[in-house]
Design a protein that fits this description.
InterPro entries: MurNAc-LAA_cat, N-acetylmuramoyl_amidase_3. Helix content is about 35%, strand content about 15%. By secondary structure, the protein is α/β, with parallel strands linked by helices. The structure holds zinc ion (ZN).
């Protein structure tokens, strides 16, 4: 695949760029919900003992800062379920030049800090924002090897301006691969959707999935996972409104609170 195609495709989590529909008039919390008052009691009542003690979460910050300079490495084909996929992609970026890999790295650390504060063991799939990869299958294997109770891959989309909102991607059934994770992953997807929408104020995408959840069978990061896993496409970097949110540190902190609360809700109930 040519570098230009990778850039145009934007996010690894995104199969096709939408061409129809959309006007994200959505029945969800108003954007820019007030700060602390928007937090639910559950999110703030984590006892110091650590309600998530003994549980492991793997957070996968999508893409990496060195990918753009390593096309041969990231374009090589890797196992992605029944077929193969490129190792990774460059990722999307905003019109202002804020790259997806930098966004996912920042957000992942914020989510990690929150989950660790609740007692969880958190493993990130990469340790900095300057390397190449790891490939999508390796990102899944890190979750498998960690014995993760939940895994989440964080991304932002690269669709055209005018397409707004977030969506959670859950694995569909792929024979021989995902049968064991489809059901728990959907429960994880619903918890992340609910709490992320609540605490970030971000509307569910009008261009992908339904009610904020999209089921896909083509993502290596999901197909190769043996632990409950979802992707979250936090917003669309190609849309000026979403891009403004993503680039705003205070918004990212609310977004992280939503992701962490959703994962925590799932872990507490499973
Ligand atoms: Zn991505």
């Amino acid at each position: 695949m040519a570098a230009a195609a990778l850039l145009a495709a934007g996010c690894a989590g995104t199969g096709g760029v939408p061409t129809t529909d959309v006007t994200a008039t959505l029945p969800l919390p108003a954007p820019d919900a007030p700060g602390d008052e928007a937090h639910s009691p559950q999110a703030d009542e984590a006892p110091p003992a650590g309600p998530l003690a003994g549980l492991t979460v793997v957070i996968d910050p999508g893409h990496n800062g060195g990918n753009a300079d390593a096309p041969e490495e990231i374009n090589r084909q890797v196992p992605a379920g029944p077929g193969t996929k490129s190792c990774d992609t460059v990722g999307a970026e905003t019109a202002e030049g804020y790259p997806e890999h930098e966004f996912t790295w920042d957000l992942s650390q914020r989510v990690r800090d929150r989950l660790e504060a609740e007692g969880a063991r958190v493993v990130l799939t990469r340790q900095d924002d300057t390397g190449v990869g790891p490939c999508v299958n390796e990102r899944a294997e890190i979750g498998n090897d960690a014995g993760a109770d939940a895994a989440i891959s964080l991304h932002a989309d690269g669709a055209p301006a005018g397409y707004r909102g977030f969506h959670v991607i859950a694995p569909g059934e792929v024979a021989g691969y995902t049968e064991d994770i489809v059901e728990p992953s959907m429960r994880l997807a619903e918890d992340v959707r609910d709490r992320f929408a609540e605490l970030s104020g971000q509307p569910p995408a009008g261009y992908a999935g339904e009610d904020g959840i999209d089921v896909r069978t083509d993502l290596g990061g999901l197909n190769m996972s043996t632990v409950p896993k979802v992707f979250l496409e936090v917003g669309n970097m190609g849309d000026p409104t979403d891009a403004g949110h993503l680039a705003d540190e205070a918004w990212r902190d609310r977004a992280a609170a939503g992701v962490a609360a959703g994962v925590a809700d799932y872990l507490r109930r499973e």
